[in-house]
Fold each of these.
Amino acid sequence: MAKKIKDDSCCKGADKDSSCCKVESVISIDERGQIVLPKEVRDKANIRAGDKLAVVSLKKDGNVCCISLIKADDLAEMVRGLLGPVMGDIFQK
């Protein structure tokens, strides 16, 4: 029997009248490919100097249509949450 995976996504529980995704700001990329996350965004997301962010892309029809930033620590927790039960099942056999 398949185990139910706990949904800890940030959109969980969002009602139909509120959106879990929104445009926080519009930023530019400089000639070296660098961007600046505005202070308001960093503060809201609790991103501090030295934090590591994973760049995650979503493809549609072979083209990247969405790029997300996820704190590396949060991504590691997500992976552990998803793979932990699977790996446990594998090693118990």
Amino acid sequence: MSLVLFNDLTRKKEEFIPIKPGQVSFYSCGPTVYDYFHIGNARPFIVFDVLRRWLEHEGYNVKFVQNFTDIDDKMIHRAHKENITVQELAERFINEYNKDADSLGIKRPDVAPRATEHIQEIINTISRIIANGHAYESNGDVYFDVKSWPKYGTLCKQNLEDLESGARVEPGEKKRDPLDFALWKAEKPGEPSWESPWGKGRPGWHIECSAMSSKYLGENIDIHSGGVDLMFPHHENEAAQSEAASNSGKPFVNYWLHNGFLLIDSEKMSKSLGNFMTARAALEKYNPLALRFFMLSAHYRSPINFTPESLEQAESGVMRLRNCLSDLDFAAENRVNDSSNFDVKEFDAKLKDFHAKFADSMNDDFNTAAAIGILFDVVHLINTSLKENETLPSEFFKLAKKYLLEYDNILGIIGDVESDSESDEINALIQERTQARKAKNFARSDEIRDLLKSRGIILEDTPQGTKWKREI
């Protein structure tokens, strides 16, 4: 089946048809870099990383853009508190973001633009919106005129009356209507500011994404993604201002995708509830592969509940996958026999059948939960083959590893077993234990076995040597 995606603009699944054949323009909202990103932010970063990987796997040339918001009220407040510049604060937390994202296996974007490096593009975008009659200047501020845009509310599926009932004018704002939102904010004492046609000031939050996405991807893009909390007002405002700045008549985005909330012990994460957790804190407590596995273990549009038990299950799942790959490598070194009567054609046919099911799951609104289930079916098939056959042909190992690594290249939940630094230490201890047994130093042999067992490593002595796996 071809790829279908649930489009939040139409609230239905639609076949994905890119604007340009073979190419995908993909914009995903990035972090505001005033602190470490929280574990809830990690979910969209991971799930849309997998969608990007799947599109690339399917042969698309993907241009993936994810921004850094490096100027806003929170950043100004924290920079003042720490007596540093906003730029210094941004530089620090962009670096910290990259460290945590790298640990979680999130591929770097093709372009990672910063708002403060695109002030002229932002000013140009605002100027076009004013010229087209959809924004106005008010004492140095510039506001989008929501009432001038009949399509406002199309993405969040609310009418202006309902939206107006919850809107308000903040102290110091000089806008005509409570729903109007700031495109440009007049300079305030002690804040960073830039020259503009409306006086010195800084951009509002929403406008940066419109200016940067149009610069790098064009006025009409294929996919825009983010957390469901961004649908309104951020993405609604982005769509309105982007289309108001354009004279093309084309939609800003063809496919809007939003992931569901991450809950902590069934509660929405918030600092007031005391259940707030940064990705950095989670990475110090849990294996990054397990965190990634957990985020992909439910459909991206569903809410997902973060609990110690769910992370333990994720860690067990990762260990089962890694143990399969490790067992495969061990057997490939010790049990190859090309005269084996193992039916490679039948094995290959089963792998191809699973691969088709995996592809169907990923093409069905990239259902990673179902895809992981198929991956475990593949693991079961490989493990059964290893268990039931003393020797296996070399082609078995090539096929098994090829499929496992292909799935991992998409999901990123197995990792490189061979380059695991802990594996080197474990193998060194096993070698020492082997020498101790040869020397009949059984006390040291038992000591090493017990040491490894305390770390969750199970040893199995075979005619081909000692192999190890992680306890599940």
Amino acid sequence: MKTKNDEGVQYACSITVGDINVEVKYKRIKNMYLRLNKETGKASVSAPARTSEAAVIKFIDANYGWIKEKTAEIEKAKREEKFELSADLSFESGTLRIWGTNAAVRRIYAGAEPEAKLYSNVVVIYANRDAEPQRLAAAVEKLQASELETAVDALIRKYEPIIGAAPKAFRIKRMKSRWGSYSYNTKTMSVNFNLIKYPKECLEYVVVHELAHIFVPGHGKEFWELVGRYYPNWRDSRSKLRK
């Protein structure tokens, strides 16, 4: 798919195809180009000055599926960039999504430096009454990262003797468009911080997925056969991550 920087626009309008509204810019160019704003997800088309509206609609329609897919990815990444607490942590209680369920959040006014702990399905935040929301959120994030680190470490230990390989190190990080990655240069696995919000089987799928990449770099038939060999329910877990 071609992309091209803006040139002098002679005329611009909007065309709607299905449920997609596309900005069309007519320019002194020879071919049509499709662009997608990575910040807003808004699609735009640059077309030669004398291109008919029917031709533009046909071009948009041909790329309709791609636009919808990429727009959904951008919207999902934008949601996951935000640190999502459903509770206003300046208040007494609320809920927090952990391992696919809504854990209750409780405040206990004790201690100077905010600290969060998970007890079964309850997150307890220990902090003084005047603690700033940012510091409370940081304490919760530290708890979430710790939960993920423990779970990832356990999964790597579980699958290393089965698969016969393990990364030299792993890290938890915020990722915009991927649930995990594996670096062949550093032999390091990266896991998306937002997996803390999903059931643990989703994390297990991601860990097995990245371990499989140690042997197979791409996503061809051989790769998915390897994933399926060690984690047969990978389709169900991937489906949950796409919701």
